[in-house]
Amino acid sequence: MFNYRLIRRVLLILLLLVFGVVKSYGYEIFYPGEKKSVTTYDYGLFIGKARNSESITINNVKIPTASNGAFAHSVKLEDGENRIFIRSGYSTKVYNVFKKTEVPKIQSEIKEFDKRTVLVKNDTTPLRKAPEDVGFNIVSYLFKGTRIVINGADDEYYRVFLAKDKTAWILKSDVEECADGSIASFINMNSQKYKNANVQTISFTKNLPYTVEDGEKEILFRIYNPELSDTSVYTLNILKPKRYYYNVTLQDGAYTFKVSEVPKTYEGCTIVVDAGHGGSQNGAMGCLGDAEKDINLKIALELQQLLKQKGANVVMTRECDGMITLKDRIKIAKVNEADIYLSIHMNSIGNVAFSHSKHRGTGIYYFNRNSKELSEILLKSITKSAGTKKNGIKTASFAVIRPASYVGVLIETAYMINPSDTLLYTQENFARNVAEGIINGLDEFIEK
User: Fold this and answer.
1) Nearest CA to 257 among 405, 92, 80?
2) Residue 226 lies in a domain
3) Percent of the residues in the chain that have a pLDDT greater than 70, as a whole number
4) What is the CATH number of the domain that holds 254?
5) Which of 106, 130, 286, 328 is the most exposed place for a label (fewest CB within 10 A)?
6) What is the DSSP track for 312-380?
7) Structural domain containing residue 336
8) Which pLDDT band, with edges at 50, 70 and 90, does 300 fall under?
């Protein structure tokens, strides 16, 4: 015989336990993922979701939440141990963040030595303005077998002598000793014009270093032969169309410089759509626990569909949740001879204090001068279509937009960590609206 009184008592206890568990968690913290961490940042970012309009405080500061519960807050960190208390009406969580003090790098003295010739070991080797691993320092990408003259060293870099008034820097690990003591000599120069391209070639008996200067109306390609003399500089001036990209190739001492015009119709225009991150690379974490990679892909697939309807040749870097390296993304663009490269992302912040008003909306990044106009157009068209705020256009040294062999932009459609933006990007039609905004911008850039 069942003891109904006992059963009812047990059920009541279970319900109270369940109710207590639910009430004990008034919020979720999605970032940081660990309660103990070590950082060199000046600020600790905390993002999450409050449940049932729960009131949240972080170190006794009341945190505003969006209607969906999303919240974000930065805490100024002191050197050493920091304890951050996150409280609601039902629970308290304590995070321990240890801030390490960064030791300033001591500037070493340049070691001088007599000029000697070395060879570049691999293709796409950066030649830099300064001995720092910063994208904006890059003046060209040298080819395998290029002869360069060095006459100084600074830690991991050699100073490259190009001409009497021109030096650069290259990683020591990117070069090897040169056994060939002969000096390169000039062979010939040629120029050809095509419907959508201007091509110039210049040949030498050996591979020589070069630099590129993208000016207001023309592009200057300079080739240096410092072994011959400290004034041996060959300059090619190529006029450029309004919307352009350029490419540099080298084979057996013969350089080819090609400046191409962006196609004026979608037909014949190759557009690479790059959904950022993927696979084990989640990208930024959102206030609601969502991963950037998934939103990027959703927008990219919508854009793919619309571009195909326009008649463009569309190349996707990924069409599913797969891992792909930055090097492979760039390779896909080059192999398919891309005219335009669109990298789709969602935004977050680095070592700064989070601002609800500043860190919000759509931002467009470009690296080369030829991509600035498209950035400006897309900022207007995307924000109008998607309803996001204008977060501006900026230059940035992101690997996928660094090549000048296509017009490349990186689109940060909204901030994953901004509670107001979460109300937009979680809408069912957000991805479509962003894609339509991109199409509207491309219409203006390509066809008008």
Assistant:
1) 405
2) yes
3) 94
4) 2.60.40
5) 106
6) -EEEES-SSS----HHHHHHHHHHTT-SEEEEEEEE---SS---TTTS-SEEEEE-SGGGHHHHHHHHH
7) 270-447
8) very high
Q: Are residues 277 and 230 in the same domain?
A: no
Q: Are residues 418 and 307 in the same domain?
A: yes
Residue where a domain terminates, one of 99, 118, 136 = 99
The pLDDT, as a whole number, for residue 291 is 96
Check residue 89 and give its pLDDT: 83
Determine how many CB atoms are found less than 10 A away from the CB of residue 52. Answer: 11
Q: Which residues pair with 255 in a beta bridge?
A: 202, 250
3-state helix, strand, coil in the chain (%, to 5): 25, 40, 35
Bridge partners for 127 per DSSP: 140
What is the percentage of the chain residues whose pLDDT exceeds 90? Answer: 87
Domain endpoint, select from 66, 99, 132: 99
Residue 269, both tokens: 């225009």
d(CA 379, CA 372): 11
Residue 3 is predicted with a pLDDT of 60
Q: Please indicate, yes or no, if residue 202 is contained in any of the structural domains.
A: yes
Domain shared by 148 and 51, yes or no: no
Tokens representing residue 133 in the block: 């691993």
Torsion angles phi and psi, residue 264, rounded to 5: -95, 5
Q: Which residues pair with 54 in a beta bridge?
A: none
Q: Is residue 217 part of a domain?
A: yes
CA–CA distance, 97 with 44 (Å, rounded to integer): 8
Domain of 308, CATH number, reads 3.40.630.40
The pair of three-digit structure tokens given for residue 143, joined into one six-digit string:
């080819």
Tokens of 23: 């009430």
- Based on the fold, state whether residues 440 and 305 are members of the same structural domain: yes
What tokens does 347 get? 């935004």
Q: Write phi, then psi, for 295 (nearest 5 degrees).
A: -70, -40
Calculate the average pLDDT of the chain.
Answer: 93
Tally of domains in the chain: 3
In a domain, 19, yes or no: no
Q: Are 324 and 278 in contact (CB under 8 A)?
A: yes
